[in-house]
Amino acid sequence: MNLPSHFESSVLGEYDGIVWFRKDIVVPESWIGKNIKISLGPIDDMDATYINGTKIGGYEGGGFWQVLRNYDIPANLLTSNNISIAVRVIDTQGGGGIYGFPDQLYIQNGDERISLTGEWKFLPLAEVDNTKFVLFGNEADVYLNRPKLPFRIGPNTPSTLYNAMINPIIPYGIRGAIWYQGESNTGQPFLYQELFSKMIENWRSEWGLGDFPFYYVQIAPFNYGETQSQYLREAQFKTDLSTANTGMAVTLDIGNAENIHPGKKFEVGSRLALLALNKTYGKSLISSGPIYSSHRISGNALILNFENAENGLKMDYSLSKNEFQIAGEDKIFYPADVKIDGNTITCSSSKVDNPKAVRYAWSNTPAAVLSNNSGLPASSFRTDDW
After folding, report:
1. What is the pLDDT of residues 246-270, one digit of tens each?
2. CATH T-level assignment (fold) for domain 160-280
C-alpha cells in the first residue's frame, strides 16, 4: 500500500479494524549507534510503533486521531544500518490509517532525513463488526478471501446523519438548538463558515419556525500538530457575526491540549445557558466575553475596540505571555505590549514602527488571557486577512 493514505482510498476500501504496516529501509552507516527520530504524521485512530521489534511509542486510546506521531529511536536499537519499521494501526470508525501529508513521513538524524512515503507492506489482522473484532489470522491472502461483511452505513456516509438524526424530528416543535462540533473540520476551515451557516439556514427552513435560536460552542484548544485550528475558530466567530439569532460560547480557557474532547462540560453548558437566558428569554446579564469589533492605527500603536466590554476588560498577567502579536507591512509578528483603557486595548512593539495588524490567541493551544470582568473569555481573532 502506498502511504500516506486512508484505508478507504486504498485496496482495503470501507474498512474498520486492525492493520499491521511494515517498511524495511537502509540508512547511512554513520547513523549506527545514534539517537534518531521518526515521524509518521497523524494516525487514525490508534498506533503502536516498533523499530527492529522493540516498541518505541504509541497512542493506544481514543481521541488522538489528529496527533502527529513523532517518536525517538534510542541508539541501542541501531546496531546496523538496516531498520525494520512496524506499525499496528487500529481504526474503530470512519476513516482510518496513516493518512497525513507526504512530508510528514520520515526518519531523521540531525539534518539528514529519509522519506518514508511510498510502498509499505500491510497485513489486515481483524475487522470491526458490530463492536467486535473478527480475526483473520496471518495466512496468505486470508484477508482477500474472507467472507465479506455487509455494507456498513456510518457517520461519514453522505446523508446518513441528516436522514437518521435530523429529518425524523423535524415534525416536532422546538424552541432552539445547541451545537458542539468542528474538530473534524480543522483541515478545511475556510469551507466551514459556508457549510455551517448553510446548515443553520437549512434547519430553519425545514422546521418552518423562523430564525429560531442557534447557540454553539467554539472548539477548544488542542494540539492539532501542523493543523492551524485558529482558522476554524475564526470561521465559527464569523458565523456568529454574520448569521441572525446565533450565539457562540468560547472555550479557550477550558481546553486540554492532549484531549480533543476536554472534560469541563459543566462550564460549556453554563455558557450556553447564559446565551439562552440573555438572548432568548431577555434576562439582563452578561452572556459572552469581549468581542473584537474594529481597530484603528494611532502613530506606532494599533487600538482595538471591543463589544460586550461594558463592565471592563481584564487581562490575566499570571500567564506566561499575553497572546497578543503585532506586525507591520513585512507581515512578521512580534509579541505586543498591551494597555487596557475601558473597552479598548492599545498594542505596540519597539520592533514595529508602522503597525498594520494584530492577532490574539492565534495558535492551536493559546492561553485565555483576555476576558471581561464577568470572567468570560474572548475568542481568538485577527485584524488582518493575510
Report:
1. 999 999 999 999 888 899 999 999 9
2. Rossmann fold (3.40.50)
